[in-house]
Amino acid sequence: MTRPRNPPSPYRVALVAFPGVRAFDVSVITEVWGTDRTDRGAPAFELRRVATDRAPVPMRGGLSLLPDRTLAWLDRADLVVVPGLDDHLTPAPPPVLDALRRTHDRGVTLAALCGGAFTLAQAGLLDGRRAITHWNLVDLLREHHPRVTVVPDALFIEDTNIWTAAGTAAGIDLCLHLVRRTHGAEAAATIARSMVTAPFRTGTQAQFVERPTPRADRDADTLAAVREHALCHLHEPLTVADLATRAGMSARTFARHFTAETGTTPLRWLLDQRIAAAQKVLERTDLPMPEVARRAGFGSEVTMRQHFASRLATSPRAYRAAFSTTSSPPASPSPADVSAGTV
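Given the sequence above, the corresponding structure tokens read:
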């Protein structure tokens, strides 16, 4: 008679809190790791709110966070996440900085969202390392922590087991990436579906690219170059078979790898990019509908209209009426402008 195997221990995540942490980042961390989704196949997590003591931690807007563990719990954590700050120069309590240094010394993964990079920098943990923060805080981080190598054009990056993320939505990207990294793409996709957000964006995407373009994450994403090529040639009649050929794979193998790496099918991804391209042209130009459809790669206005109806529950004309930012016809952009997201 075989004994039933014990379920795996929950993955232990510590949210480090002290006065001044951002409520948004606290909410993101809690939503990713603090919600039980095991009934949907997601892993079991144990999220603890860790602070110097059990006193409520004040946050902006009259909110407060109630810690359920002290800093000693960091010795048990598998992952430690530091939220961003409302005032990015807020000094962290010395016991917090000491605890973060000890945690890193024992090889635990540390992650900071947005201005949380300033807290890690205060602890000296980013000295001589690459880090990122919100694009609007890059110069401030460089000024106050000159030993940090600040990377201005990424969503999130890692250096010697320390992760930092850009602002707001990039914090969600990093949290989902950390789930994907430790528990696989399906776990991250399950959580992303629950949050109604994209399951995967490569960290090397520039903060300023409006339609994300994977560029250099070759190790973590073997199909980044194929997607980059597609984004630069959306105006051409690309098919999934074309992309598979470029990747040197059969269509079936390509689809399997693509879905595993992005959480979506190649066809759906390609259509989403074309819709995004059409939206940009509709918002920013007065080009006629057939030309918008051609530049976005739909081939015809009818096809574009069908996809707008199914994905956005509106028509291209209604979308332009609601979101157009141009009052007079500008110079016509080139297809390359559309694919680069600059029109």
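The longest strand covers residues 45-51. Try to locate this feature in the token string yourself.
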